[in-house]
Structure formats: structure tokens, C-alpha cells
Amino acid sequence: MILDSTYFLPLAGIDVSTDLLVAVVENRAKIGLDEVGLSSVSILELQAKARKLDIPPERVTKAVRAILGTFRVFPFYSEEVIRGAHSLRSILHDYLDAVIVATAIAAGEDLATEDSSIHKNASFIEKEYGIRIYSYRDLVL
Questions:
Q1: What residues in the chain have per-residue pLDDT under 70?
Q2: What is the pTM of this model?
């Protein structure tokens, strides 16, 4: 399952109310740690959010190392992802969101996100591309 950027923010010390990774580690989620993947663009989003919140670079570096050492990271620049993001432009106006959805499509994996625009288009994405869109509430027991 591909996880959206939000779920990785706690690794850099950024609080979110939907800490899915803690739920996974505590066996309170319907997925295991070995099932988690993300787009490499999510690492950039984490860095940008941390910079905006003035999180120390050392903390961000540790978070990036933890991500790269623990999870499957899919490149945002593969041809399949680029084509997929382009095809999603009519329903997702934020290009980075489109890249994350396209990553899940290219990987043939479901996506967990809290993004309202993605959830608004979930039935279309499922019908057109064959992946399901989940939220934190859907995955935590």
C-alpha cells in the first residue's frame, strides 16, 4: 500500500492526528510495515513541510534515512508515473497529489491518504485505475 506524505511527517517530529505508522507498529492497523511504500516526492514534501515549521535539518535527515532504510520508495520520475500524473490532471489539480496517486496506480497498490480532493474522486480512481483509496479511519482497528 502506498501512503501519502502526511503519514511520514511524524518521523520528522511533525504532529499529525492520523499517525498511521504508530498504528502499524502497534499492530492496530490492517497493514504491516513490510507493505508500506511511498513516492519519492513524499520525501520532498516532508522536507518542505519541516523547513516551513523550522524543524532542525538533523531531525529531517534522520527521518529521510529512516524512510529510505525501512520502506519501499518509488521514483516520482518514472515514465509510468509521469504519464499517470498527466492523465489525472482533469480530476486532481495539485500535481504532487497526482504524482502520488499515479505512483499507486503504477505500482498496482492501494493508496492511503487524508487528501479531500483524492477522496472526492476515489470512486472514479477505483473504477478507472483499479486501486482503492483509504483513509486513516479505514485502516486502523
A1: none
A2: 0.95
Domains of the chain: 2-139 (3.40.50.1010)
- Give the containing element (helix H, strand E) for 25: helix 20-25
Nearest residue to 84 (alpha-carbon basis) of 49, 134, 129: 129
Please report where in the chains the cell 513524499 appears, as a residue: 42
Containing 39, the helix (H) or strand (E) segment is strand 37-39
Distance CA 42, CA 87 (A): 20
Rounded Cα distance between 101 and 88, Å, is 8
Under a CB-based contact definition with an 8 Å cutoff, are residues 93 and 84 in contact?
A: no
Instruction: Give the DSSP per-residue string, 60-119.
Output: HHHHHHHHHHHSEEE-TTSHHHHHHHHHTTTT--SHHHHHHHHHHHHHT--EE---HHHH
Pairing of strands 133-134, 111-112: parallel
